[in-house]
């Protein structure tokens, strides 16, 4: 007697016949895919097709932000789930749930919450959909797949529509990275997750991301950039009748990045995704006769670093500021290792990140290595400077990003004093006090990498803070602790041409202090902190002692 073969019925809820057909092709004879338009009360199949007790039933929910109102969509979804009480539920959500925000650290994991003050209708839509489905499933096993933007011939996503146009509007001064997956990879990911019986929340996203401008250029789309303030005037314009149909809500994702880490999904499924591969397979590229492969290896950093741009800037226009405007005197660059991870730590003076920019320029130029400095959210909030700092290798300040940089074998740049050090009165700029938090030393101990201290004298003089304004509106707008008053700022925000002196000091290795710490990690941290701070203070004092003028003269022996 032969036993009946158990089949899997996949109920695709939503208007997506192409996706349903692709699932059927991918699943073969073991799966039966039944398209089920959300407006209908029963699946588009013969009566009783899903009632067999031997069949495994999986309900795949496909919300559409531009066309669905959350309340109506959830009400209909509850009605559908009531008809298949034993079904597993797969919600195809989106990475957009994390929201576009300048506080976003990038490549976030599934436990990350949206920034509490962020207002974006698309992020709120996906948040409400996920919460509503979670409450509606009851005893149904639930899998939530937060997908990167899907592009291809049949995708209805707004990014896919954007890439099909001849010209598009972007946000001037911003160029966030975006993750893409092609339709075939999306089907493979959904099918693979169902096959493996996954449950819970997963980011389905590639490890690489590409800036918006490079994406548009790669598919032959011309862009027209407008200031965000102008786009905001048309925030009530709609691109549909759904809860998340405002056009400015979509454009916000072209202002700030919203990327997720798909590491957990890739590890559990073995499915490899790629933004560059999705672009190479995009139909418009093939029709336009563009080259078959994309040379985007220098642009696929998830945080937006542009290797070619940084090298060009270091050897060209930034060289003017090094050699002519600030006449930077340097010493000790041989202490930067030729390869391997290390932490650069030193004082940050001046509320503009010009010291970090010039350090990146000189280290890139003279050692051929590119340090990755941690960025405060205020530095990427505004146009032009946001794109510039990301292209120069800046990454948002958080422990995860610091760990990632060090694991990749790169140089990590940290200003331990943070934003408070940048807003010191000029009379206090060379008094280090506590010298910030201990995080950078803890990174060094955790990864067993050296800390390379550096001293900078002269950067504080380009914007010497003589007074501070406590204007609440401006403080809230800039997210600064105060509004600084300098000889030129805020009336004429031009930095003064003070002469800089930069010294890279010998590395401090955690291993050299372990014996003295006697196995006590906190004592080891304290010893390393004291050593790093002591070297920086000594170097700074010697430079100040030998400096004859703020504007001219060398202090280092040739």
CATH architecture group name of the largest domain: 3-Layer(aba) Sandwich
Task: Assign the CATH class of the largest domain.
Answer: Alpha Beta
Overall mean pLDDT stands at: 88
Q: Strand order of the main beta sheet, please? A: 13-21-18-14-17-15-16
Would you mind describing this structure in some detail?
The protein is of the alpha/beta class. It folds into two domains: 8-288, Rossmann fold (3-Layer(aba) Sandwich); 307-546, Glycerol-3-phosphate (1)-acyltransferase (3-Layer(aba) Sandwich). The chain has a seven-stranded mixed β-sheet with strand order 13-21-18-14-17-15-16, with helices on both faces. Helix 1 (17-27) packs across helix 5 (183-195). It is elongated and about 85 Å long. The termini are far apart. The model is unreliable at 43-53 (pLDDT under 50).
